[in-house]
Amino acid sequence: MLRVYEFYRQGFASMTVGRTLWLVIAIKVAIIFLVLKLWLFPNYLNTEYDSDAERSGAVRSSLIHK
Amino acid sequence: MNDLVSVVDWSRAQFALTAMYHWLFVPLTIGLALIVAVMESIYVRTGEQRWKGITKFWMTLFGINFAIGVATGIILEFEFGTNWSNYSWFVGDIFGAPLAIEGIFAFFMEATFVAVMFFGWNKFSRRAHLVCTWMVALGVSLSALWILVANAWMQNPVGMQFDPSQMRNVMDDFCAVAFNAVSMNKFFHAVASGWCLAGTFVVGVSCWLLWRRSNVDAARSSLKVGAWVGLVGIVLTIWTGDGSAVAVAKVQPMKLAAMEGLYDGKVGQELVGFGILNNDKKPGDDQQAIYAEIAIPYGLSILANHDMNSFVPGINNLVYGYELTADGDTVRTESYAEKIERGRQAREALAAYDVASAAGDTAAMTSASTAIAENFPYFGYGYLDRPEDAVPPVAITFYAFRIMVMIGGYLLLLFLLYIFVGGWRTAWLERPWLHWVGIISIPLVWICSQAGWVVAEVGRQPWVIQDLMPTNAAISDVTSVSVQITFWVFAVLFTCLLAAEISIMLRFLGRASKTDITA
How far is residue B38's CA from residue B229's CA, in Å, rounded to a whole number? Predict the structure, then answer.
């Protein structure tokens, strides 16, 4: 484990362009998971219904009456 | 009703925006991974240090694209859960299984070996490092495989049974889902097009270096590799494109008819090479469909069925049904009006199942299940108001197909030109026009790649799952305002990411052009 850790530590330490890229990745992942997923993209059926039976019932009702 | 249309349209626009932006990054990752592996193989085989420098140069460009593009696809999964919840539930484990395999196996394989590829130059033997680079190339293609299997199932839903108690499709034949003609052609077509795209990118950037008179030797060597990979890519793309056309003719004949702007099919159908569509043309009217048409005799019959005397149905034939007597055979297809009726019967049976289930009437549930199963292949038609609603946007599909094919033909000539010049007319590599042809080809190949997806996805409208679920049935009970807000959030986010990628790449190339990349 220590060797793996050293491998990654030295790799990250020697990066040039990569540091900018990691910054971009960090910002992007933060926006995707902390803003988009939490605030703007809740899973509709998981949020509105508590069990799979309720979810299947809701979809059935929706597809019957749509 | 108006709000439903608005929600559906905004959700479709949002999904299209996300998918198209995502696909800006993906094919370059797929193709550049292969090109880097080929270059490193040359380095290991020859032992020439300059190839190590060349490999690292393109590996850095691969890394920039990989870093910017990674995780952009996950937003599509968010959209499934929020905007397309009926669809997400209805597809059950069929969509989830390939995506889970992609997430667990291919992505982690990629992520592990990418680290070794970038950090392991002095820590692994040459051959071990090369193996890791090839594993990255394999990993990105395997990632694509499972995503494309999931997409192909939407175009050709096979290998499952619908269970009305769960309201889900349950996979009963994994091999049918994963390895049918549509999925395999789609996979190889998409991956090979990625090789073609990355080949053009490498040729274009090499031409830019030659134009700047920077790293001339490395640029010439890179250009040859890019052109050869691109040539293999475009040949395979054309070959698998032919396979895709045959598959589309079988499972999505309406898409093929829209691609050709064909309303009334015939035996020995010609292929429209070029033409201008009549935008006022509607199914069933007498107007001319295409003006200024340049056609290849028997071309579409050969393309669709590999038989010059075969019948290819047009939009009117499919919408209104047709009978055909050829060689003594009578073939009759159901009209869309008949399919709509069968779809409505399936919906009514589903309603009967719901009532029987609530009442605990097992016999009625069994009877309803049987009626659903009998009509399930037409289930989605029950959501259409009229037969003409099943016709996709013909103009977009028609022109996107021609853009794809024309640029594809151009790319074939481009790669042959650079292979010829790189191998037998190296003095031409100093000519500015040759540099500029390579540079301006970079945006063209992306246009070609996007046009291919437009044909595949717009051409199958209104279906989110072919014949089983149209977009208006797949949508969640969300407001159009919320979808509009997230549409613009994505537009800004992805534009920023694209600008960041181009900016970082240009800065890297600017610096690299002032140094010896082979050192």
Answer: 9
Nearest CB to A60: which of B60, B82, B167?
Answer: B167
At residue B106, the pLDDT reads 67
Contact B283, B262 (CB under 8 A): no
**Which of B355, B487, B483, B488 minimizes the C-alpha distance to B85?**
B483
What pLDDT, on a 0 to 100 scale, did the predictor assign at position B328?
44
Instruction: State the ipTM, two decimals.
Output: 0.85
> Does B70 contact chain A (CB < 8 Å)?
yes
Asked if B486 lies within 8 A of A41 by C-beta distance, the reply is yes
pLDDT of residue B70: 78
Q: Is B341 exposed, middle or buried (0-12, 13-18, 19+ CB in 10 A)?
A: middle
Chain B interface includes A55 (CB < 8 A): yes
Q: Which residues of A touch B89 (CB under 8 A)?
A: 45, 55-56, 59
CB contact under 8 A, A40 and B486: yes
The reply to whether residue B82 touches residue A44, judged by beta carbons under 8 angstroms, is yes
In chain B, where the domains are located: 2-252+392-510, 256-333, 337-387
Q: Of B69, B151, B140, B110, whose CA–CA distance to B504 is shortest? A: B69
Q: Using the predicted structure, report yes or no on whether residue B126 has a pLDDT greater than 60.
A: yes
